[in-house]
Specification:
The complex is a heterodimer.
Chain A lengths: L2 H17 L1 H23 L11 H31 L3 H6 L4 H27 L10 H25 L3 H21 L8 H7 L3 H14 L6 H25 L6
Chain B lengths: L2 E11 L5 E11 L3 E5 L6 H9 L6 E6 L2 E2 L4 H6 L1 E4 L11 H11 L6 H10 L15 H13 L5 E5 L7 H16 L3 E6 L2 H7 L2 E6 L2 E7 H8 L1 E8 L16 E2 L5 E7 L7 H10 L4 E8 L2 H19 L1
Parallel strand pairs in B: 3-8, 3-9, 6-7, 7-8
Antiparallel strand pairs in B: 1-2, 1-4, 4-5, 9-10, 11-13, 11-14, 12-13
Classes of the chains: A mainly alpha, B alpha/beta.
Amino acid sequence: MNVRAMATIYRFEMLRFFRTLTQSFLSPVLSASLYFIVFGAAIGPRMTELGTVGYAEFLVPGIIMLSVMTQSISNAAFSIFYPKFIRTTYELLSAPISFLEILGGYVGAAATKSFLVALVILTTSTMFVDLQIIYPLAMLLMLILTCLCFALFGFIIGIWADNFEQLQIIPLMIVTPMVFLGGSFYSISVLPPLWQTVTLFNPVVYLISGFRWTFYGQADVPLISSVLAFVLFSAACLAVIWWIFRTGWKLRS
Amino acid sequence: MSIIVDVQNVRKIYDGGIKALGGVSLQIRQGEILALLGPNGAGKTTLISVICGVANATSGSVRVGGFDIVKEYRAARSMIGLVPQEITLEPFGRVLGTTQFSRGLFGKPRDDAYLEKILTKLSLWDKRTAQLNQLSGGMKRRVMIAKALSHEPAVLFLDEPSAGVDVELRRDMWQTVEELRSTGVTIILTTHYIEEAEALADRVGVIAKGQLLVVEEKSRLMQQMGKKQITIQLSEAIVTVPESLEGYGLELGQNGASLIYSYDTNGTRTGITKLLNEISASGLVLRDLQTRQSTLEDIFVGLLSDSEQREASEL
């Protein structure tokens, strides 16, 4: 195994992250802070409690998941799309490195970046709410898994995209609506019965619900279904990536 | 001399059905400079891409240093450095950083002294902290070479190394290639500049329409296929070649002021003495004589035209 190559990709991706700190770090943190201010501080006090927690507290896991999911996708998608765009992939393809190691370098870096963003948002949230985390280890595990799963998904988008428009279209038109309607800002129990049923077809609901459970011990859907959703989503992404690696689709002519 | 790259019957048909390589076999010897000559679209870059792992072959096999490029890709690719035709660099990266990246990608431990040596040799050490998008075209191409050499490859592929560079830079590039060869690196370069192959190569391969037409020692190729011409300038112009000289296959030069005689340099007898005697006997008066050896370009054009004629006759 070419660990050094994987570490090289990882290190250079992280260097790029720190080189573009404003865009990659401050921007998502600022967005999350705005959600806290608008929904948490301004609107929150006027909302009724959701379960046993106040609305502002309820928001924290949702906002973290929103940031983590979108950031993981955009980080990973851009990291592999960029070498394709500037046509430097020849170097990856001609190096003695397996696709799995390429994946490890890029997805690992993308997941680390969004994990760091999540930690900063979590810290920022303590400025707005009195935060409690019932199961901190489970929370960290779910956070890491989400970072990795969505980075894998982003990697697929990055390989698929032929231009910047395609790079943006899935995160913007599919992922963002799914995350917004997946219980980031509300419990699905507040929806009318029909919409509750419709919402259950959104896989993001299970991921956010599971993450919120680690904070407050309460969830919209059974915990086991959240775990199952993680497993299925990761397996689907890995299966697609495995196929991409086997065929060299969009990478090797 | 041992074989370092062994290409066996490699075919490449792209997804759209375009046949880029039609069964190419080629053995590259350790330590040589092999020039692959061919017009645009001949299949030179595709062949290099297949050997280096950038493109998959439709069929056939390639071994580098005895390692199969598919089954033993790690060992095979570790031996190869690739400088593509197009200059593709991360614009915001820096010279030393990008060479360190390339070395790491090939799994080699950090070696600043070696990279300093390479960058110094390529006159880039002073620019090691410069941002890549601020370098000149020639410097960028040298950075591409530095990246390819960063992991100490045994075989270096240079795809059109002097495409789009000025004459002075081309000479610099040639000198760099010569210096690299002196360190024991096997070099394969593609070019459509005949003079480049003539100046650098030990052997020359001519490729056209996905077929390797010939691979031969440059000197032997010129000797075997090269013809020599003697241009006999006459004191007075003539309209037709005299009947007594018909057996020599003479061509009448411009305005009938000269006769052109082609002969084989390898022949036991060139027939020059006899021809000159016959010219004298026919009453023509000589003014001057010039001889000219056919260049690699003449051979190349000849091979291509033969190949086209063969193809036309097969249709």
